[in-house]
Amino acid sequence: MPYEMILTETQGRVGLIRLNRPQALNALCDQLMTELGQALRDYDADPAIAAIVVTGSEKAFAAGADIKEMKDRTFPAVYLNDFIGERWETVLEIRKPVIAAVAGFALGGGCELAMMCDLIIAADTAKFGQPEINLGIIPGAGGSQRLTRAIGKSKAMEMILTGRMMDAAEAERSNLVCRVVPAADLIAEAVKIGEKIASLSAPSVAMAKEAVNAAFESTLTEGVRTERRLFLSLFATEDQKEGMAAFAEKRKPAFRNR
Ligand SMILES: CC(C)=CC(=O)SCCNC(=O)CCNC(=O)[C@H](O)C(C)(C)COP(=O)(O)OP(=O)(O)OC[C@H]1O[C@@H](n2cnc3c(N)ncnc32)[C@H](O)[C@@H]1OP(=O)(O)O
């Protein structure tokens, strides 16, 4: 499918999706979110791809939902059309690791999209925020929940109640992002993480993702139970035998994803 608002390219076994609506700072309109969802599904289904990087431009990862598109929507329209749910949560359905590579603004829905990804790597130019309060609304794509779990109640409350932005250094200190890198290195570093993941056993990668996500979606007891079930099931894979044999034999493992 030809895209108008995103660009896709593959680098080795990493699928790169670039939001490409520069005139609106990658504001997340319906068309962009539909295209993003399609590209994510395509890479998820592609056996040649092991990890996905979602990025924006130097100036903006995404400045949020498209305010101009959304401003005249009525309650029945947003409710009946399941605004947000319908298009925004595709990234949560993706089984392969999804890395958000954020430079510039990641605001509102942009910050929420980044937080729906499995990890966020940030350029030193990144700015995160949930400024919806300035528009007379609140976060609607999970920001009040995911930001609070990532950075804690007090800081999340301050950001969401005042609309204050957080720079990259603060985002790293607050555990919102895994790492901050110079802007010029952002894509290369994100792809490097994807390539490292691609070199590992796909079943263990998928189960590691499922186990970490269980920490967000269940109680500690349920999460530990999920981890245990996944951990034990990996002993049914050839890759577990190969990984441990390779360690004992002091050689590199040759994983076959089974
Ligand atoms: C997910 C849900 C449910 C909700 C949301 O996400 S609500 C949106 C939350 N985001 C915001 O409130 C951020 C809005 N944008 C800004 O505050 C500023 O644009 C900025 C601080 C990110 C950057 O300011 P700057 O002065 O550098 O650039 P602008 O001239 O303001 O923007 C350039 C160009 O982009 C258009 N733009 C920016 N953000 C959006 C947006 N979220 N929706 C639609 N359009 C956006 C902006 O209007 C301008 O275009 P025009 O010159 O053609 O008006």
Automatic annotation (TrEMBL):
GO biological process: fatty acid beta-oxidation
Database matches in CDD domains: crotonase-like
Alphabetized UniProt keyword annotations: Fatty acid metabolism, Lipid metabolism, Lyase
EC annotation from Swiss-Prot or TrEMBL: 4.2.1.17
GO MF term set: enoyl-CoA hydratase activity
Domain of life of the source: Bacteria
Coiled coil: none
Catalytic activity: a (3S)-3-hydroxyacyl-CoA = a (2E)-enoyl-CoA + H2O; a 4-saturated-(3S)-3-hydroxyacyl-CoA = a (3E)-enoyl-CoA + H2O
UniProt-listed NCBIfam families: PRK05862.1
Family classification: Belongs to the enoyl-CoA hydratase/isomerase family.
Primary role: Could possibly oxidize fatty acids using specific components.
Full protein name: enoyl-CoA hydratase
